[in-house]
Amino acid sequence: MKWTNALDNIFVLEVEYDGTNYAGFQIQPNVKTVQGELQKALQSIYRQKITVAGSGRTDSGVHARRQIVHFTPPKILSNINLKLAINSQINKDIRIRRVGIADSSFHSRFSADVRTYKYFISLKENTFDRFYSWQINYDINFENICKCSKLIMGEHDFTAFCNAKSDVNHKICIIKKSNWIKENDSLIYTISANRFLHNMVRSLVGLMIKVGNGEKTVDDFKKILNDKKRYFDIFTAPPQGLFLEEITYKKNIQWIN
Fold first, then answer.
1. Is 59 marked active-site?
2. Which CATH number is correct for 113-245, 3.10.180.10, 3.30.70.660, 3.30.450.20, 3.40.50.970?
3. What is the pLDDT of residue 2?
4. What is the pLDDT at residue 4?
5. Under 8 Å CB-to-CB from 234, ≥6 apart: which residues?
6. DSSP collapsed to 3 states, the chain
7. In whole angstroms, what is the distance from residue 220 CA to residue 232 CA?
8. CATH architecture of the domain with residue range 10-110
9. Using alpha carbons only, how large is the chain's radius of gyration in Å?
10. I need a labelling partner for 119 at 20 to 30 A (CA). Which of 24, 86, 192, 200 fits?
11. Are 234 and 161 contacting, i.e. CB atoms less than 8 angstroms apart?
12. Which one is catalytic: 59, 103, 219, 227?
């Protein structure tokens, strides 16, 4: 695909952000959001209203290393480095990593093939990590949380692990990767799937940690998954430990800078 800056191209942005000071990705009235800040920056550059679409709607306090955003350019701008232009217009807790183009059939959300999240837990209090990990001060049975992570591999109905108000046609997701690793005083959970439901990753992590600290058992986890109903006592892990890590696509994106 040739870079022409022509109007038949979809512009694609790879965005990283610290979600601490934002009410999530999706634009909302009277609060600061990542989508809202991106649209303000683009409006300043193009001198007209621009709407961007993201690959997913991260919640308040959740971070992203590689959120994918697309928009249709309203006009041709010559002699402009779009990455530098946006970064110069936006807060430093949001950065455009790179800019690309795709054909008109591309959509950052609906064209996504696999999404990957990571959740970080600190087993010791750390002042500098408090906005980027869930800090807990009790022992965790690592073997049991690993058993739970394997139970969700493959295709399952995740009704038990999503917000009860989730407005989706179905709650079936295909999990392609689900594993915990332990590094020094940290636990890191990685999960990849074709799609995720609202609060799904944080609910999974919350229940797994309850299994890890002995409040629940591995059999409890399995039963909750198979019952396909939301339990009132499923704990949702706090947002600051969650990172949107990567989105992969079958459709081609030509990265420019």
1. yes
2. 3.30.70.660
3. 43
4. 46
5. 160, 161, 203, 206, 207, 224
6. CCCCCCCCCEEEEEEEECHHHCCCCCCCCCCCCHHHHHHHHHHHHHCCCCCCEECCCCCCCCEEEEEEEEECCCCCCCCCCHHHHHHHHCCCCEEEEEEEEECCCCCCCCCEEEEEEEEEEECCCCHHHCCCCEECCCCCCHHHHHHHHHHCCEEEECHHHCCCCCCCCCCEEEEEEEEEEEECCEEEEEEEECCCCCCHHHHHHHHHHHHHCCCCCHHHHHHHHHHCCCCCCCCCCCHHHEEEEEEEECCCCEECC
7. 14
8. 2-Layer Sandwich (3.30)
9. 20
10. 86
11. yes
12. 59
Which amino acid makes up residue 88? Answer: S
Q: At what angle do helices 142-151 and 200-212 cross, to 10 degrees?
A: 140
Question: What pLDDT is attached to residue 167?
Answer: 62
Which residues, 6+ apart, have CB-to-CB distance to 245 below 8 Å? Answer: 65, 66, 116, 117, 118, 190
Structure tokens at 5: 């800056």
Which residue(s) pair with 180 in the sheet? 189
The answer to whether the 10-110 and 113-245 domains have the same CATH topology is: yes
CB neighbourhood size of 138 (10 A): 9
CA–CA distance, 22 with 25 (Å, rounded to integer): 7
Is pTM beyond 0.90? Reply is: yes
Domain regions of the chain by residue span = 10-110, 113-245
pLDDT value for 117: 98
**pLDDT higher than 80, residue 5:** no
